[in-house]
Amino acid sequence: MARKPGSARAAAAATAPAAAPAVAPLARYNAKRDFAKTAEPAGTLAPGGERLQFVIQKHWASHLHYDFRLELDGVMLSWAVPKGPSFDPAVKSLALQVEDHPVSYNRFEGEIPKGQYGGGTVIIWDRGHWSPQGDARAGLAKGKLVFSLDGEKLAGLWELVRIAKPGDKRQNQWLLFKKRDAWARPRSEYDVLTALPDSVVQKPLGQAAQRAGRAASEAPPEAGARRAALPATLAPQLATLVDSVPDGHWIVESKFDGYRVLVRIEGDDIRIFTRNGNDWTDKLKPLAEAVAALGVNCAWLDGEIVVLDDAGVPNVHRLQNAIDHRTRNKDIVLFAFDLPFLGDSDLRALPLQARRGLLQQLLEGRESARLRFSPALEAPPGELLSAACKLGLEGVMVKQADAPYVSGRTETWLKLKCQLRQEFAVIGFTLRSGATRQIGSLLLGYHEDGELRAAGAVGTGWDSATSRALHALLAPLEIKRSPAVAAKAGSGRWARRKAGSEHWVKPEVVVEVAFGDWTPDQQIRHAVFRGVRTDKPAAEIVREHAKQPASAAPAPKPARKAAAPASKADPGLMKVTNAQRVIDPSTGLRKIDLVRYYESVAEWILPHLQQRPVSLVRAPEGITGELFFQKHAERSIAGVTELDAALWPEHAPLLAVNTPQALLGAAQMNVIEFHTWNSRVKSIERPDRIIFDLDPGEGVTWPALLEAAELMRVMLVELGLQSWPKTSGGKGLHVVVPITPRRDYAQIKAFAQAVAQHMARVIPAKFVAVMGPKHRVGKIFIDYLRNGQGQTAVAAFSARARPGMGVSMPVAWEQLPELSGGAHWTVATARDYLSLRKDDPWSDYWGTKQTITQGLRMLK
């Protein structure tokens, strides 16, 4: 085959010795396999293409490991990497060199039969091309191979180093690690194994470099984009304040309490501009460095800079302090929400949804503590606004999904605020009683119809240090007369001030103020100071009037029903506090491990949580500390919905976890377990499932419990009911029966009790239907009590607050003999298990329609 000069394959072969006999390289591979029994391809040498291939196969045999393979000389050089690769250069992964594999093995994904070499499940975890840095064969001989990867998950420079000493028989021991480059990431920030656990055949990603924007200059990324030089300046799109949302397709985001910025990237030149075009790059150097680490050559990013407080909520006062402080500015975070330009493409004509999709691809796997993607919130605007207000956030942004990017204020971007909140020009101040250099109140104004008008005053929201700083800022600006009209005694808050107590100033300082509403004489009331704004000139400060855009519908009331979850959860604004705190001393699992677990299983667990009242088991001090069972909104949890109190009269409102944001918000608040009712909100009085909790007493073995579960299944079949098992995450098993929601809780509980009593009466040596440890010695208690109104059972995929942190896992009946116990899967292993499964053992559960009518007749 002809080779192009300079190709990776030609570089690898540049100083190659004579090739070995054709059959030798794969002899060991073929000898270990019976190809009449395994679907793995037989080993034959194969000519390659212009570029060298690599593949990483995730392989669960006797244990989980990753098979790392590099093509060279017609075979795949192969290493088993027990703990997998990491983008963190500090992580050195042991890699054991094994026999060469055929190039055709790159396409193998499936089951290797038990009894065969490597028996277990194999998926293609990553694939792509590799390029050696220098002579590949010489590097292998010396035990040091440096190379670049261009895959769907892995990219950048990597290194393999042999660690066996010369002459040591164990020459197969190597280390695989990431070289320091733009792709390197601390594992504490990003764990690629957890973030992207699935098969790239089943869930293709596209090349990582393209997703990060490195290939953006080769072609417009989407139809509708046009080629254009990167402009030197860019005016931002601005939102209109409204009190209602029109019908249509809207994207809802958090409204950040921060400063708007636009970031211009041109090669190594990163510039950060305010909304008015002021260059703040020097003030935000750590942020500029974070943007540079993306490795993007040409782009404009649009977003908001914030500083998060201890609860993970943006705080504009902290932001102002951080901007002017050389050490605190490392706390500034940019939440990017739009991408007007990328590469040589002007994306402004594209729909917002397409631009955000490209931005998400650009940041995927590259987010950091300082640079994050602003996620869409998956619920109606009214519900999200209500949740944002409870969390102390400013409000929500509502953006038209199919609209282009337009500089200036538009009605395709809208903002809904929890409180009335805007910037004001400071037109004067009063002194704090008994202090000559501290502010007692700020006198405020705004521009309208060419005039500077008084708006009232604010006298709270700062501490003593801020009060002194405000005085130092305003005192040099003092003038003799008010710069505004209508700033006189007898009007609004002015009437409550002693005449002559005002110190008037030139209207050059801008502050942000939250307030309750406007009085009839156009003064603000219930005002609270939020911070000084240095990103906006006083001359541009006008009164914001909330309006209804064309075709607006009335503002929605907080909904009791959330939209379907996003395909992937995103922590969004959530700051994981105490991320490294160990919550299970028996395994060393940390809080961040739990959060990452729930992020990774969101698409599996949410169908079991959505629209069901939920009880939360919280462990603020870890599973060895005190546990709290929370059914009501004792304190706000980000995204968790408070249900209508009328659903369960004479009780406090119940909670529901309907979205990925709610799931992660709960995990951030130290929630480990999720327990749900047997009914959904739409038919709260009528259960849609029955749960039999098989709880083994002292002395009951696991095989005995499996036999009991099978007996339970047979009994239910005789009663005309299909059932599905799941592990409890603890000692037992749950047998779950889906039913059509026609009967009330009392009827369903009575039926479940009758089934349990029947089993205990017919097989008394195995079953008991009476509570209490003394009744259960050597027997299994069929817990039917979970079927009463207000009772709960642990949700599928929920972790358990027990040593080892088992997970409640839905399984097929045929799988039960393969399990080791009710905690067969844990937080550490469950997601990898799911990534290796192609079928859902509960796929028929959701569509099953059945009632207890036949069973009731038979049990009479």
TrEMBL record:
A molecular function (GO) term: ATP binding
Name the domain of life: Bacteria
Any idea where the ATP-dependent DNA ligase family profile domain is? 325-417
Q: Which reaction does it catalyse?
A: ATP + (deoxyribonucleotide)n-3'-hydroxyl + 5'-phospho-(deoxyribonucleotide)m = (deoxyribonucleotide)n+m + AMP + diphosphate
| This protein's UniProt keywords | ATP-binding, DNA damage, DNA recombination, DNA repair, DNA-binding, DNA-directed DNA polymerase, Exonuclease, Hydrolase, Ligase, Manganese, Metal-binding, Multifunctional enzyme, Nuclease, Nucleotide-binding, Nucleotidyltransferase, Plasmid, Transferase
Pfam families recorded:
DNA_ligase_A_C, DNA_ligase_A_M, LigD_N, LigD_Prim-Pol
Q: Where is this region: Disordered?
A: 543-571
- Biological source species: Comamonas antarctica
Can you say what this protein is called?
DNA ligase (ATP)
Q: Where are the transmembrane segments?
A: none
Starting at the broadest rank, the lineage of the source organism is:
Bacteria, Pseudomonadati, Pseudomonadota, Betaproteobacteria, Burkholderiales
| GO annotation, biological process | DNA recombination; DNA repair
Q: Does the keyword Transmembrane helix apply?
A: no
Q: Its Enzyme Commission number?
A: 6.5.1.1
Stored NCBIfam families: LigD_PE_dom, ligD_pol, NHEJ_ligase_lig, NHEJ_ligase_prk, PRK05972.1
Q: Which cofactor does it need?
A: Mn(2+)
Disulfide bond is among the record's keywords: no
